[in-house]
Amino acid sequence: MDWDAVELSLRLAGATTLILLLVAPMLAGWLAFSRRRWTVVVEAVVALPLVLPPTVLGFYLLVALGTQSPVGQWWAETTGRPLAFTFTGLLIASVLHSLPFAVQPLLAAFASVDRRLVEASTVLGRGWWSTLLRVVLPLSRHGVVTAAVLTFAHTIGEFGVVLMVGGNIPGETRTVAISIYDSVQAFDYATAGRTSLVLLVFSLLVLVVTYALNRGGRPAWPQG
Amino acid sequence: MDWDAVELSLRLAGATTLILLLVAPMLAGWLAFSRRRWTVVVEAVVALPLVLPPTVLGFYLLVALGTQSPVGQWWAETTGRPLAFTFTGLLIASVLHSLPFAVQPLLAAFASVDRRLVEASTVLGRGWWSTLLRVVLPLSRHGVVTAAVLTFAHTIGEFGVVLMVGGNIPGETRTVAISIYDSVQAFDYATAGRTSLVLLVFSLLVLVVTYALNRGGRPAWPQG
Amino acid sequence: GADATAEPATQIHIAAASDLQFALDEVIRVAEQDRADDLSVSVTYGSSGTFVQQIANGAPVDLYLSADQDYAEQLIEDGHADEDSLFRYAVGRMVVWAPEDSPADPDQGLAGLTAESVDTVALANPEHAPYGAAAVAALEDAGVYEDVSDKLVRGENIAQAAEFVRSGNADVGVLALSLARAPEMRDEGSYAEVPLESFPRLNQAGVVLAEAPAEAEELASYLQSSDGQAILADYGFYPPEWDGD
Amino acid sequence: MTLAVRLRRHVLDAELEVQLDPTGPVTVLFGPSGAGKTTLLRCVAGLDRPEPGSRVALDDQEWTGARQYVPPQHRPVGYLFQEHALFPHLSVLGNVSYGLHRLPRAQRPRRAAEALAATRAGHLVDTPTPRLSGGEGQRVALARALAPEPRLLLLDEPLSALDTPTRLRLRGDLRDILLRLGTPTLMVTHDLGEALAMGDRIAVLVDGRVHQHGPARGVFARPATVSAARALGMDNLLPGHVTSTIGDQLEISVGAWSMRTNPPSGAAGYGAGDAVMVGVRAEEICVTADTEPDARVGDAACVVRQRATVTAVTPEGSRHRLELDVHGVPMVATVANRDAVALCAGQRVSVTVPGDAVHLIPHHQPSEVPPGG
Amino acid sequence: MTLAVRLRRHVLDAELEVQLDPTGPVTVLFGPSGAGKTTLLRCVAGLDRPEPGSRVALDDQEWTGARQYVPPQHRPVGYLFQEHALFPHLSVLGNVSYGLHRLPRAQRPRRAAEALAATRAGHLVDTPTPRLSGGEGQRVALARALAPEPRLLLLDEPLSALDTPTRLRLRGDLRDILLRLGTPTLMVTHDLGEALAMGDRIAVLVDGRVHQHGPARGVFARPATVSAARALGMDNLLPGHVTSTIGDQLEISVGAWSMRTNPPSGAAGYGAGDAVMVGVRAEEICVTADTEPDARVGDAACVVRQRATVTAVTPEGSRHRLELDVHGVPMVATVANRDAVALCAGQRVSVTVPGDAVHLIPHHQPSEVPPGG
Ligand SMILES: Nc1ncnc2c1ncn2[C@@H]1O[C@H](COP(=O)(O)OP(=O)(O)OP(=O)(O)O)[C@@H](O)[C@H]1O
Ligand SMILES: Nc1ncnc2c1ncn2[C@@H]1O[C@H](COP(=O)(O)OP(=O)(O)OP(=O)(O)O)[C@@H](O)[C@H]1O
Ligand code: MOO
Ligand SMILES: [Mg+2]
Ligand SMILES: [Mg+2]
Questions:
Q1: Which among D120, D133, D159, D167 is the best mutation to test ligand 2's pocket, defined by most ligand atoms within 8 Å of the CB?
Q2: Structural domains of chain E, with CATH
Q3: How much is the pTM?
Q4: Ligand nearest to the CA of E135
Q5: CA distances, D255 to each of D325, D364, E346 (Å)
Q6: D257 touches chain A (CB under 8 A)
Q7: pLDDT tens for residues E80-121?
Q8: pLDDT, tens digit, for every residue of E321-353?
Q9: How far apart are the first and last CA of chain B?
Q10: Chain D residues with CB inside 8 Å of E81's CB?
Q11: I want to staple C15 with a disulfide (CB 3.0 to 4.6 A). Which of A93, C51, D59, E114 is the partner?
């Protein structure tokens, strides 16, 4: 059982979720409340990683982060290590790749916040940033949880990008998805099965807890 | 440029989205409005494909769909073809894999529908199914669009499952994600780049149109 | 094993063609036993072409073992390794393999793949896996490529192709002999060898990459030593100098 | 028809049995803000689940009981929400037709249009629902509740967002509709005028308890508790005590002055020393600018006449409101606008409380729910 | 201080210039449901953007103008929403403190508590916001609007959800607070009593147009248009026409009968044949059970006395409402409860309209906005 890979995946997913929980609300807030026409285009660009196969993203990243690119070279010279095939490289890829999974649910949630509450906030002298933080975000709790779950999950499950820019290095870039893939190819169905099971049970636990906690504000069906 | 692959991916994503747009609202409605304790567990199970790496899903599917399994055998006997390495197999995999991407945004959207409107509907004599269709779903428009976009996109971008159960058959299971991957591995960066670009432009167009259409009901920031 | 105060073990990362999946594991196990010092070797198996592409983009690989000499030479050309670090370690052999209950009969060789009862034929992706390219060449040589092209299912590398067949999802596969001889497959099916002369010879070669630690060189030597070669021979590899009997 | 309700939830701890006959179908639920009126309606509709032991039954149909709980969609009630709760994604017509799914499809538009016309909202059919103003929304919501012709109507402040002329007209219209349909109605209102104009019976709810329940005019005229009296707009509630009983009459001292009066049901219930609350409506008090001497009169025409000082004059539309200082006891009176012209703060006046305007309430200080209330 | 407003949006097409002096700070916006009152407030607060050409300015600060648009968060206004719009995720205290971010942190709790106490909502601090009842929520929302002590207050029906006693008390409280702070206030209400009790000035908005604007009592006493009169609760609006002018007096025929009266500003404006609307408030009409003969009297004390039939009697709390048929003309009167006891539908009575109760409005049928209105 490849515990290293499990740990690595959790670390990667955790870091990605953390970063996106900071970045996505700002972005989503700006997108939701800006009245400029071209925000639609920005919205589409943000959503792009969604539609792009991970291999496309992986390809562009490989080109951008690889030692043949200026960015990759600069990074390699500064840190002494290349970006591609490192944890940092994976993290960058994951953040980009999961961005829409964080932004989309937030956008949907922001859109259903009662407009009058936003108005009440502005009329009490609060600008959009303050309103976002104090009214819109707290009232979008379900959206925030969905964003976090989707981001975390999507990163855990990420395979294509990692295969392309990760390089399958144990402890550094061999995530659990890759590890299971390898086990299956090595006909080691037992290990594949066991790793899958561990992941399954763990995920189930995390999800049950998340949903149970999140259930509080859920509008149950009127006493029926 | 692998047009076959592009077409196949669009077909797969379209079919998956269609199926899930029918299934997910029911499931989400039941999950959102049931007051039974154990729905939390069902909710977690529905969300599982989210956390499972596509390779795990692919592994289980390979085992389940293969001719050594009862399901696979039954299918092979009935249709004369095995499920693995067919479009139908991919579709089943995609639907399972994208289920949470459709259900999650719907759940979040349902949760933010004004509880009083649900009450108003019941008190006017409508049961939960009717209320779901006539009140909750229409008021969750943003959630539905998000669910559709995420599902479509996630299917277009799907790589791991397809790699594991697809078999890379042109026109049948070689999706655009696989095609680009192959191009890159074969050092055919030109084709990879071109295919990516086509996908990028197409996706951008679809997204811009979707968002522009969806923007209507968005609560713009009060006249600032 | 070393005690806690010892220097951290040297890390060697090997990227190896997936036909080595089982053979190389054994080689390394034995090699590690023979050594006094601590050596930590990690291996990634995959298609030979993929690795070249990754190494070209900076993947931290110390020893690259290809299924085909051309890929190894490409790394030297691109300046990722010294010319004299190139070495051959085996000649790869190919088989038609089918599981026990398969409708296909491997004994008929490639020609048998045209049988109507055969729905799917697994092979490695010819675009970046040498065994895939070799399989296509052999099929063409046997004059059946046109007939079977609709049945082809491509694994990302030769190990995945093998996995397709072994799991029963594909009826038959054109695989590496080394995989067919692996304990995991030996008892599951039967195979017939594809004549060596029906496809361009699979000269399996490796390179030690520039800046690799000395231990990588040592491992490469071990692979070419008689001990190493014996293990490879067990898995059906011909020695690199093999000249047709 | 009888609606039997015994409910406990949050502040609510109420028991109510309403006889709903078609010729007097409207029971008004009256009480201060936060008394539990909305909670009661919600429990009857099945939207809130009361504590065990509660019971809601219409005739012999038990809706909430020990063994069963009929879900709201199976209770044939019409509900007007205090916040309207119109469906923003449906048109005005869509909203009103929403509850008509049991009607043949062809009849629905007509029924909806009728309901809209009845609530004077016919002209709003083409307005997008989110654009309706407060009062427009309320009329549409009322139409939506009426349209399915439910067996029981629950209206939570149906007219509160309307301007006075519209409200007066709708009051009449609504009462006519309810009488015509004979639909038993439980209606919450804050407006005493509305309660009396529309209600056949009034139930006074204060702090979650039913303080009084009976025919509208009876409740209005004779509040049973101090809280009920306060809720029912009895502006002057003067604490006093019985100093002596003389035959049928009671001698009561209030502040610095005293009065002699007939208690509503003979002097039987009262004895010397009993605390009582003397209730007088502001509009029953006569205020005259002349300054006749103080007098305590025992006959029905005049219980007491006192000199007083006007402390404030406030216009209130049809009347003026006077705040008075009657020998240290603050009192409120209203006078016709015509008569108010001559009055201003600081002026000395004469205050006469007519005999039939005095209402006595036993005044048990700590717990003031009447037994069996 | 002067609030200058010229607005066009939806139904709204209004021009209003309000002098807001600290000793009479409250301007009431009065008008029927759907008149555009909320729209006007929203445009002043900057929540709705009016059409180009509109202008909102407080003194020399232009908030909405040709060249600039101050966003709502930079307009120092306090706004009470008709639907309260309390933040459900914040506590009551959190809601009231929300606008206090410019105050030093240490002072916020005290200020919030003060505001809550002022709106009689101090006891609600510990109630979860979503559980507040309708009236409780309104008081908290009012406290939230008051707490930051804005330069201009916009209150959309601040007391509509309250029961009468609480409302009467809060009326006084609120007026005292506004007077103390001297905060200019634009307040929407449907309740004429409230408008008169709280407003220093009244602006009557009907169908999006300002029909009249002036000191509260003046507007109440002399509505300038038929719509304004209707909105201001002038219950009897009888179409008639001038049959002749006799010196200072006008002879007016209404239905089957005629009356002679002094027009408010001499007969100058009227000539024979002019259409007029005769307005009389219900409470100004005297109804007596005796049946004196019909009479047309020219002096101030009595313009006309007619026999009439009572068609309906409705209790309204402090008064009873009578519907009358006066020689074919339907009229409404209110009488004291005491006097109503003797009255019932079908009864013949005598109706007297006092001279000073008659108000004449020129009656241009089609477009009835007064010039310069
Ligand atoms: N879930 C709850 N738990 C505890 N108390 C609650 C809950 N919901 C409401 N309350 C309280 O119950 C009381 C009654 O509320 P309700 O809405 O029934 O009042 P109401 O009589 O309709 O008042 P209003 O006339 O102001 O609308 C309120 O004081 C409210 O704070
Ligand atoms: N976006 C809009 N487009 C067109 N008309 C609108 C729009 N929004 C509101 N209206 C209309 O403008 C009118 C005035 O609405 P407003 O809310 O200002 O009325 P109001 O005077 O506040 O009424 P109420 O006393 O019932 O609250 C209404 O008839 C409404 O239907
Ligand atoms: O390089 Mo391979 O072993 O042909 O996949
Ligand atoms: Mg209520
Ligand atoms: Mg309004």
A1: D133
A2: 2-229 (3.40.50.300), 234-362 (2.40.50.100)
A3: 0.83
A4: 1
A5: 11, 18, 46
A6: no
A7: 998 889 999 999 999 999 999 999 999 999 999 999 998 889
A8: 899 998 888 899 988 887 887 888 888 888 888
A9: 48
A10: none
A11: C51
